Amino acid sequence: MKFLKTFIGVISILLLFVSCDFRSSDYYLSESEKLEAEDKYAEAIILLDKAIAKNPKNIYALINRGTDKSMLEDYNGAIEDYSKVIEIDSINTLAFFNRGLNKQRKEDYHSAIDDFNRAIKTKGLENFRMDKSVNFFSKSGEFDVPMEEIRLERGYARYNSDSLQVALEDFYFCIENNFQLGLSYYMAGLVFLDYNMIEDACNALMQARLFGNLDAEDMIETYCKK
């Protein structure tokens, strides 16, 4: 009888160990990244759910899950994850930027602009350029986003919310800093067209074509060859 009780006790302990998951949050994060490398975003999210359940403050897992949800066009879910990151790290540039991108994908341009503004604020001054390695405003340089990238996206959101003058300022900031010149000149050209400034529009569109923007060609054919 004593042997039976001991045996049952050993079995109970073994079952307890089998049923418990002793893998860490970082383990699930690492495994999810292997799936993401194969574009298996839905499968990666399952592992990231486990990583976050293990550690709800795992910023890397939250950001990655937000990215995976974006890839699956679950923009609301992505926004929720980036909002959780911001609750943990209120000056996380990447979280504000990515949340703004997802709002923009939902055509919620005014709210997207607000997030892009907040991303810029985490970096300091509006026209101040700062490299990741010296970004002392955020907890980690790996969560930085180049100022030009933020302002290009903000310019796009501003353009789509009919804030044309300030949109143009963002596009020319990117042009002055040699950032995505084809797209920046193209968007500037569209602003000039909205203002009916045809000569300026054509000059910008021709620059866009020069830097490889294929969409500019059709616009040039329509507005600049008369």
Give a short summary of the structure:
By secondary structure, this protein is an all-alpha fold.
Description of the molecule:
The chain has helices spanning 2-19, 25-36, 41-54, 59-71, 75-88, 93-105, 109-123, 147-160, 164-176, 181-194, 198-210, 215-223. By secondary structure, it is mainly α. The protein has a domain at 180-226.
Largest sheet: none
What is the total tally of β strands? 0
Low-confidence stretches: 13-19, 134-138
> Which class best fits the helix and strand makeup?
mainly alpha
Measure the end-to-end span.
Answer: 102 Å
Shape: elongated
pLDDT averaged over residues: 89
What descriptors fit this protein?
single chain; mainly alpha; 226 residues; elongated; 0% strand
Topology:
Layout: H1 2-19, H2 25-36, H3 41-54, H4 59-71, H5 75-88, H6 93-105, H7 109-123, H8 147-160, H9 164-176, H10 181-194, H11 198-210, H12 215-223
Helix pairs in contact: 2-3, 2-4, 3-4, 4-5, 5-6, 6-7, 7-8, 8-9, 9-10, 10-11, 11-12
